[in-house]
């Protein structure tokens, strides 16, 4: 039985509580919530499980040491002294990523370069050859985090960001990040208890994440590789056991997930992505104008969507477009919970409905609001009575 060690899961702003909840449900201990991160403890098998099963994590880092640094020479010397030969072979490749919050160290790329120099110099001095750098598919990804004078060195167990699930074969203009999509659905409280609609589905990301949540499918099942798979101590048998146990928890889904888009190209791309995720049995997409649609039946319905913005909607149309969203919801979708994310705060005023909830998030670098509109059967007053 391997012993527990500390790990740090990175996430998006506003997703920290969700990630802590996911880690708790998966069996993590010593959970502490930070800003855009959650630290926790678990063993090697749990590290594999967190990468495979966390919907709202971007990275799972394994800190291996921390020390004080006051100068660049300090950093170089302490990195050089670390036994890097325990973590990679000289024939392997490496990539270094750095984040700095310090008055002394202000340039993250320079810190990454200095770290890389120290590692390759150690190999060259000991073995006469140096490992290469490969930014795309390295054998070992190293994360340096400097907070004032404390430097934490971590191994990146995820490799590429965990939002890259592996199912997206077709990309649309301004697609929503998969981690953000999963987080939005989880924040809405939808877990597969009723029908789900994305009325402006684009490439189908929200639909795909919704189906994986409903069926309890591990979000990163379609990924080609995790960072830990190229580590010297990777235990393939243990990973296969973890994967098998996660797949046993997959459940059936008795409701319907469907999406609309007015763009036939987007519909084609959504279908390809859904097929790539093997979810075509659970999701239906069709070319349809949401503004001319209405609810199919009396059953409860969750609507979750990311309306087009910037280049996909011209400035003069914004007022009319958001006003049409409000009208469509009022006219065609009684008995519905509708959730929408937008970075255009002004535009929200034109929806003509009062949100019952607002959550601050970031869509990329854009500050956004996730808002909930509750569309009651009849009037709100009557529904409360």
From TrEMBL:
The segment(s) forming the THUMP domain are: 46-157
Q: Which SMART domains match?
A: THUMP
Q: Give the highest taxon in the source lineage.
A: Bacteria
Could you state a single Gene Ontology molecular function term? RNA binding
Coiled-coil spans are none
Q: Which InterPro entries does the record associate with it?
A: DNA_methylase_N6_adenine_CS, RlmKL-like_Mtase, RlmL_1st, SAM-dependent_MTases_sf, THUMP_dom
Protein name as annotated? DNA methylase
Native species: Aequorivita aquimaris
Upper lineage: Bacteria, Pseudomonadati, Bacteroidota, Flavobacteriia, Flavobacteriales
């Amino acid at each position: 039985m391997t012993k527990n060690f500390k790990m740090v899961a990175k996430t998006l702003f506003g997703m920290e509580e969700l990630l802590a909840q996911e880690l708790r449900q998966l069996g993590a201990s010593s959970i502490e919530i930070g800003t855009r991160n959650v630290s926790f403890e678990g063993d090697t098998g749990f590290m594999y499980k967190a990468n495979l099963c966390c919907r709202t994590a971007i990275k799972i880092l394994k800190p291996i040491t921390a020390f004080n640094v006051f100068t660049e020479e300090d950093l170089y010397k302490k990195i050089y002294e670390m036994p890097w030969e325990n973590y990679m072979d000289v024939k392997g490749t490496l990539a270094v990523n750095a984040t700095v919050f310090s008055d002394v160290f202000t340039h993250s790329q320079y810190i990454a370069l200095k770290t890389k120099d120290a590692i390759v110099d150690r190999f060259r001095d000991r073995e006469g050859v140096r490992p290469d750098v490969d930014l795309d598919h390295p054998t070992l990804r190293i994360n340096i985090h400097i907070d004032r004078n404390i430097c934490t060195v971590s191994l990146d167990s995820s490799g590429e960001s965990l939002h890259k699930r592996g199912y997206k074969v077709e990309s649309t203009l301004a697609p929503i990040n998969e981690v953000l999509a999963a987080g939005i659905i989880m924040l809405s409280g939808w877990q597969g208890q009723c029908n789900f609609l994305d009325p402006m589905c684009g490439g189908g990301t929200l639909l795909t994440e919704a189906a994986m949540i409903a069926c309890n499918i591990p979000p990163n099942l379609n990924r080609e590789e995790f960072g830990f798979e190229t580590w010297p101590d990777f235990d393939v048998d243990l990973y296969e056991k973890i994967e098998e146990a996660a797949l046993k928890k997959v459940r059936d889904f008795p409701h319907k997930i469907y999406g609309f888009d007015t763009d036939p190209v987007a519909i084609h791309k959504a279908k390809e992505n859904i097929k790539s995720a093997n979810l075509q049995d659970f999701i239906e997409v069709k070319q349809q104008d949401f503004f001319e649609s209405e609810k199919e039946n009396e059953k409860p319905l969750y609507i979750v969507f990311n309306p087009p913005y910037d280049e996909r909607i011209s400035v003069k149309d914004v007022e009319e477009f958001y006003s049409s969203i409000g009208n469509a919801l009022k006219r065609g979708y009684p008995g519905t919970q509708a959730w929408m994310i937008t970075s255009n705060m002004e535009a929200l005023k034109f929806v003509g409905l009062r949100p019952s909830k607002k959550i601050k998030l970031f869509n990329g670098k854009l500050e956004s609001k996730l808002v909930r509109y509750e569309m009651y059967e009849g009037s709100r007053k009557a529904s409360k009575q």
